[in-house]
Amino acid sequence: TLLKCITGILEPSRGKINVHGRISPLLELGAGFHAELSGRENIYINAAILGLSRKQINERIDKIIDFSELGDFIDTQVKFYSSGMYIRLGFAVAVFSDPDILLVDEVLAVGDESFRKKSFDKIREFQSLDKTIILVTHDMHSASQFCDRLMLLKKGKLVGEGKPHEVVRDYVDSTVEAEKSYTRGTKDIVIESVELLDNNKKKCKKFSPGDYATIQAIFKSKKAVNSPIFGFEIHDHQGNHCFGTNTKLKKIDTGIINGYGTVEFSLENLPMLDGNFYITLAATSSDGKNEYHWLENCIRFKLINPSDDVGSFYIPVKCSLKHSQKTARKETIKVNKAVRP
């Protein structure tokens, strides 16, 4: 709806939109195509609508056809085109109309991978020319990769705006939090509380890269349980499994558990650079086949990057530079000799 308002297809119900420059929209599959006309004829019609003269279209039509890779079908009626062919032709016309502003809806999700790559390369070319590109997508990878600034809309209202990685992170976090953490298991052992502690053994949910942290869980067994396994997993905000371990892997003999107890996992150097993370904690049988208590996403914590470093992981780096002036001095001597009378 917003893109249609920008292009002038719809009038905003209130407020106004100011557009400076020529717009080339790629909004809906097959939008602007006449089904009974050929691909070639549709190129002329669409390009004319986008503001090109017939002379300009004649100069660019070969490039449009080559980019779309529809040379064998360009004189076929577009009603026989597949959805991917529609996208190829529509995108080719849009980018070769030399717009100041390119509007792209989620239509690029339809094309095959090779054409998607070529299309995104073209978008990068537009960026290098300081063109304005407005991309509407639910693909977080595309949003992070191609956008300098993101705006998050929910039910027509602006709920987030800023740097791509921050807006993407908040969006994914909101979807994760909507999926409530849950528990399952036989409850032969019940994990009654889980805390994340800092280096001073105080509750903490915000850390810096390289910090020390402790996962502390208090549990209770209803009956004697022989050699249970206690373990945890860490996932990032996209659900990627970052790390996991347990008492068995760490060669800890838990013995016979009966009543209350405490288990702690000390994380001596948090290696993540930035973002929100989730801890899942579990108690299982010694062979791992029976789950006594599984707490999915029971704790959320945040890594805050205090530096300008980028990436996923924290790697302590020392940088040094040595520079020799010998070459420069030699060059100076040669120049002085050359200009000496």
From TrEMBL:
Domain spans labelled ABC transporter: 2-180
Keywords, alphabetical: ATP-binding, Nucleotide-binding, Transport
Gene3D superfamilies membership: abc- transporter (atp binding component) like domain, P-loop containing nucleotide triphosphate hydrolases
GO molecular function: ABC-type transporter activity; ATP binding; ATP hydrolysis activity
Entry-linked InterPro entries: ABC_transporter-like_ATP-bd, ABC_transpr_TagH-like, Bact_Polysacc_Export_ATP-bd, P-loop_NTPase, Wzt_C
Gene Ontology cellular component terms for the protein in this record: membrane
Similarity-based family: Belongs to the ABC transporter superfamily.
Protein name from the UniProt record: ABC transporter domain-containing protein
Species assigned in the record: marine sediment metagenome
